[in-house]
Design brief:
Elements (H helix, E strand, L loop, with lengths): L24 E5 H5 L5 E5 L4 E9 L1 E6 L2 E6 L2 E5 L5 E5 L4 E8 H10 L10 E4 L4 H18 L5 H23 L13 H16 L6 H8 L3 H11 L4 H19 L4 H7 L5 H12 L3 H18 L3
Antiparallel strand pairs: 1-8, 2-7, 3-6, 3-8, 4-5, 4-7, 6-9
Helix pairs in contact: 3-4, 5-7, 8-11, 9-10
Length: 307
C-alpha cells in the first residue's frame, strides 16, 4: 500500500457520509463492511474519530503512517484521529471495529488520568491469556448492547468502553519488550493547530464563537485556520463547528425529553426558529421529524431485543 498520494479524510470506516447515528460510539463486525470493499480499505484518515479493532481470526496487512505490518491471528489495533491507516483483510477475517467520536475518546482519556493507549497509533499481537479473554468478552458485550439497545444503553456502553480502554492500556507496558513499535512521529505544526482547534470546539461549541475568535485563541489568522481545516479535514472551520453542534443536537433529540426550544437554547441559538433552520439545512428534516424517526428506531430495536 502507498500513502504518497493525497490521503482522503473519511467520516467513518471506509465511508464519506456523516456519522450515522447520534451515538458517540459505532460498533460493527469487520467483515460487515470490509467485504463490500473486497476486503481492502485504502489509506485514509479521520479528523475526529478513534478506531479500536479487535481481530479474533484471520490476517490483516496493516498500514499505519506509511509503515506496513502483517498481523496473523488475535490482535488489537489502535488508530487515533488524524493517523493515516489502511487495511487489507483476509477473507476469513473475524472481529470487530469500535469507533469512538472525539468527545467520548477525550472523556475516556481524562477518566484514565491521561492514559496513552487511545492517543498512540499502535498494534498488539495477542496471546491466549486471561486479559485477551476479557477483551474479547468486552467487545462482544459492546457489540450486543450497540445492536440491541435497552434501558440504560448509553451508560452501559460508556462503562463497557471505559473498561475496554483500561484493559488495552494494560497491554502497553508488557508489550514494550515483545511488540514492534512504531517510531516517533513528527507532528507538524498544522496538525497541532488542528488538534487544538478541535479541543476548543469541544470546550466552546455551545457558545458558537466566531471562527475569528477561535483563530485568536490559536494565535493564527482565520484564513490560515480555514486553510488547515480544508487541507487536513476537507471541511471549513465553520463546518467543523457546525458538525459538533449537529451531533449534540441529534443526541439531545434522541436521548432527552428536552423541548426543541430548550435544545436550541442549550446549543447557543437565540431563537428556536434559527435552530430549526440550521438542523433542517444540515439533515434535510426538521428536529421534530428527526426525533420521531429516532424514537421509532430505538423502540423497534428494544422490541427486537425483547425489551
Amino acid at each position: 500500500m502507498s500513502s504518497t498520494a493525497v490521503v482522503p479524510v473519511f467520516k467513518l470506516y471506509g465511508e464519506t457520509q456523516h456519522w450515522p447515528t447520534p451515538d458517540l460510539l459505532h460498533c460493527e463486525s469487520i467483515p460487515e463492511r470490509s467485504h463490500l470493499h473486497d476486503w481492502r480499505i485504502r489509506p485514509h484518515r479521520h479528523a475526529d474519530l478513534v478506531h479500536i479493532l479487535f481481530i479474533s481470526q484471520g490476517s490483516v496487512e496493516l498500514e499505519l503512517e506509511g509503515t506496513s505490518h502483517q498481523l496473523q491471528g488475535m490482535a488489537a489495533i489502535i488508530v487515533p484521529a488524524m493517523t493515516i491507516h489502511g487495511f487489507l483483510f483476509s477473507s476469513d477475517i473475524q472481529g470487530h471495529i469500535i469507533t469512538l467520536a472525539k468527545p467520548l475518546a477525550d472523556h475516556l482519556h481524562s477518566a484514565l488520568n491521561d492514559g496513552k493507549v487511545l492517543k498512540k497509533a499502535d498494534f498488539y499481537r495477542l496471546a491466549s491469556t486471561h486479559s485477551t479473554t476479557r477483551i474479547a468478552k468486552l467487545v462482544a458485550q459492546i457489540d450486543q448492547e450497540y445492536r440491541y439497545p435497552a434501558l440504560g444503553r448509553n451508560q452501559l456502553l460508556e462503562a463497557l468502553t471505559q473498561v475496554l480502554t483500561i484493559e488495552l492500556e494494560r497491554l502497553v507496558v508488557p508489550a514494550q519488550a515483545s511488540v514492534k513499535r512504531l517510531g516517533p512521529q513528527r507532528r507538524e505544526k498544522g496538525r497541532q493547530h488542528l488538534e487544538q482547534f478541535q479541543t476548543l470546539i469541544e470546550q466552546r461549541y455551545r457558545e458558537q464563537p466566531s471562527i475569528e475568535d477561535f483563530a485568536r485563541q490559536l494565535d493564527i489568522s482565520s484564513a490560515h485556520l480555514n486553510l488547515l481545516c480544508r487541507k487536513m479535514v476537507g471541511l471549513s472551520a465553520l463546518q467543523m463547528l457546525h458538525e459538533r453542534i449537529l451531533l449534540e443536537a441529534k443526541r439531545q433529540l434522541t436521548y432527552t425529553n428536552m423541548t426543541i426550544a430548550q435544545i436550541a437554547d442549550s446549543l447557543g441559538f437565540s431563537e428556536p426558529a434559527y435552530f430549526t433552520r440550521f438542523f433542517k439545512r444540515n439533515t434535510a428534516m426538521a428536529p421534530r421529524e428527526f426525533r420521531q424517526r429516532q424514537t421509532g428506531h430505538v423502540n423497534e430495536a428494544t422490541l427486537q431485543a425483547g425489551g
